[in-house]
Design a protein that fits this description.
Layout lengths: L1 H20 L12 E4 L13 H12 L6 E3 L6 E4 L1 H16 L7
């Protein structure tokens, strides 16, 4: 679960920087939601779902502002992360970094 959390944080930053770095790729304003494949627990002990809930908690409780996400209603192994929410978080993250208030995700 900890590896998934670290990778999710890196993916958020990558999602933001890739939209800005690719010429002709548009801006974060036209970015699509980020989708994490979190599985449905088939590979865990007792087939318990652990990655999805851990990422939801991280996104919605540990990041500021919170990043909105939801499980796909058709495939519970997919977690959709709101592009506008990522944008708002990235802007706040960048502002905090410029002010020297944030050193880690």
């Amino acid at each position: 679960v900890e590896v998934a959390r670290a990778l999710a944080g890196a993916a958020l930053l990558d999602h933001v920087t890739q939209r800005a770095a690719v010429p002709g790729n548009g801006t974060m304003n036209d970015a699509r939601d980020l989708i994490f494949i979190v599985g449905q627990g088939a590979g865990s002990e007792d087939h318990k779902v652990v990655v999805g809930p851990a990422l939801l908690e991280m996104l919605q409780c540990e990041l500021h502002p919170p990043v909105m996400a939801y499980l796909d209603p058709i495939n519970a192994g997919r977690l959709h992360v709101s592009a506008p929410s990522i944008r708002a978080w990235a802007e706040a993250f960048a502002a905090d970094c410029r002010e020297g208030q944030r050193l880690v995700l």
